Fold:
Amino acid sequence: MKIINLFLILTLLFLLTGPAFSRDGNELLKRIDEKLMPESYEAYRKLINIEPNGRKKEFVVYTVKKGKDKMAMLFLSPASEKGRATLRLGENMWLYIPNVGKPIRITSLQSVTGGVFNNADIMQVDYSAEYNVVKLEKNETGYLLELKAKNKTVAYDKLKMWATKDEILIKIECYSASGMLIKTLEFKEIKDFGNDVVRPSVIETHSPLYKDYLSVMVFSQVRPRTFKDEVFSMNYMSRIEGLRK
Structure:
């Protein structure tokens, strides 16, 4: 009888606290997203791939985003890539190459720049759009969140995410469904970009699958800006340059 009563008590506690925990964890994740980027914005970034021998390849891109899951990106350099554009709508992604014709479908695990960053990293939408928080820990330095993908189309099945007390993202470990560590993303060098945007200006990634390779993403400008929905369509990919001011 005591065992049954204990089971009933534990079940009741789970029913009472489970939804609250899930709600609190997912609300925290949304706030982390909000502090990482405005809901809609434009940004300039440099992507740097560094090989084990020290050789580097750099790309400069202009990026626009609207809402939680719409993003478009235009390559400005090197000259061999200039004019190329990418589009992300949820989990659907396309690459536009001038003079080739209609955009080409690409996947989240491919990379339009090579290196350790894949397309999901380069065109990252809100984490709360792709993941649910399944575990949340709070300590003296901040938070550790464990995230589970909402569906199988997401690039990583699980994430471990570290954030400061101020809910600023500092590190993410990305895992496969089998539990294998795929890569680590480190968020560094907090910068005030103006317009109440204070966030890491550098993201570094390395992976046990790419030993001694390093990829770096550097934000030079981030500015809140609103866009029409037509900007995030395949028909607009050839005209993204016209958005730059």
